[in-house]
Specification:
It is a single chain. α3 crosses α4, α8 runs antiparallel to α9 and α9 crosses α10. The protein has 2 domains: 123 residues, 2-Layer Sandwich (GMP Synthetase, Chain A, domain 3), CATH 3.30.300.160; 146 residues, Beta-Lactamase (2-Layer Sandwich), CATH 3.30.450. It is elongated and about 75 Å long. A hairpin with a 2-residue loop joins β10 and β11. By secondary structure, it is of the alpha/beta class. Helices cover 44% and strands 25% of the residues.
Length: 300
């Protein structure tokens, strides 16, 4: 950078600072006129959860941003709270039961807050995007049916593959895995037929190996839809998640879709919150080893 370029850059920076200071003074004067407090929004701490309370387009049209949220109290920075668009947003927050504290801020300060919407979008993308809701009666019926891995095999075979409901098939696949305490579900594409396997205690077990190609693809598409993955992308790996909602709890399913020679292979990791609540007796130790472990724990 030449000396001239450096001087030009410094001048530009100083002019921008002068403009910003002018904006802040105008915001202070407006706050005094409206009987409200002034806030330098560009320096204020901002909560992403608060920013996300108002859609980006709505916030920009109203010239405001929600910057803090605590319980039922929110802090809003607005260019001009007396504008009709701003009044509507503030009234909507109050109707939702929030106690609203309004500050007047400059447009440049609020624009600084609006930049956080790019992070809000990323945060939303990481949240669970789809749910499989299982009723109490359906859970009870299937859990009573699945006492062992062969029971799951029989249940899938008994479905038939003429007029099969893909949602029902997915429910059997998932609830069969939960009932048999599987940690992972593997769906593997084959040349003519495809395979379902469960990982139980670290070992992969074949469950069903006669999925017709048409129904296998429909099942994969259903899983991708729930996980908000791209249906038309079949040659690149994709990761997502969905939730299985049981009457008493919600289970997170982490999904990985991987292209393979004959189609897409799917691995679903089951993150059951109850699976970590295991006693020593549940670890599968032999009685003599269990006594040794207990003895070691009880030593002073």
């Amino acid at each position: 950078m030449t000396r001239a370029d450096e001087l030009a850059a410094n001048l530009k920076k100083k002019l921008a600072e002068v403009r910003r200071q002018g904006e802040e003074r105008m915001a202070q004067r407006l706050a005094n006129r409206l009987g409200l407090s002034y806030l330098d929004a560009g320096k204020a701490p901002v909560s992403l959860d608060a920013v996300a309370m108002v859609p980006e387009e709505t916030a920009k049209a109203a010239g405001l941003a929600v910057i803090q949220k605590h319980m039922k109290r929110v802090v809003v920075a607005a260019v001009d709270p007396s504008r009709e668009e701003a009044k509507r947003v503030l009234e909507d927050l109050k109707k939702k039961g929030y106690e609203v504290k309004v500050f007047v801020a400059s447009l440049s300060g609020i624009q600084h807050v609006w930049e956080q919407y790019q992070h809000v979008a990323k945060k939303k993308a990481t949240s669970i995007t789809g749910k499989v809701v299982v009723t109490s009666s359906e859970k009870e019926r299937l859990f009573q049916q699945f006492h062992s891995l062969p029971d799951v095999t029989k249940a899938i075979a008994d479905l038939g593959f003429t007029k099969l409901d893909t949602s029902s098939l997915l429910n059997i696949v998932v609830l069969g895995a939960l009932a048999t305490r599987a940690s992972d579900i593997h769906l593997e594409a084959g040349e003519d037929v495809s395979k379902l396997r469960y990982r139980v205690d670290g070992i992969l077990y074949d469950i069903f190996d006669q999925f017709p190609k048409k129904h296998y693809r429909a099942l994969i598409s259903r899983i991708k839809l729930l996980s908000e993955l791209k249906i038309n992308v079949t040659t690149e790996p994709q990761d997502g998640r969905f939730a299985v909602v049981l009457p008493e709890k919600e289970i997170d399913m982490r999904v990985s879709v991987i292209p393979s020679e004959f189609g897409e292979t799917v691995v679903m990791r089951i993150l059951d919150p109850d699976s970590i609540n295991l006693g020593l007796e549940d670890l599968g130790l032999r009685e003599d080893n269990l006594r040794i472990v207990k003895s070691a724990i009880e030593r002073p």
